[in-house]
Structure prediction request, 100 residues.
Amino acid sequence: IAAVVAEVTDDKYLPKKERKRTQIEHAATLSEQAKLVKLADKICKVRDMSRSPVVDLSLERKAEYFSWAKQVVDAMRGVSPVLESLFDKEFAGRSFGSKQ
Prediction:
């Protein structure tokens, strides 16, 4: 479990933009177990952001998050058709609504 957590943990010393870029690049190289964890995490976050958005999150930042999350998931495609389908459903149903 610790090894899987280490695989999906960002290097917090990198600037945020760099962390996001490396997550996309690194996603394809994760172990199968780490990909499943990362995929489940992205499903939950997209669902949460769509249904219960962070109060101070601008529509632009929200759109950027959805786009970035899809890039991460796309880099891991093939690990779990069921989870990928759940992500796709949440992504397709995303709501930008108004700034909360």
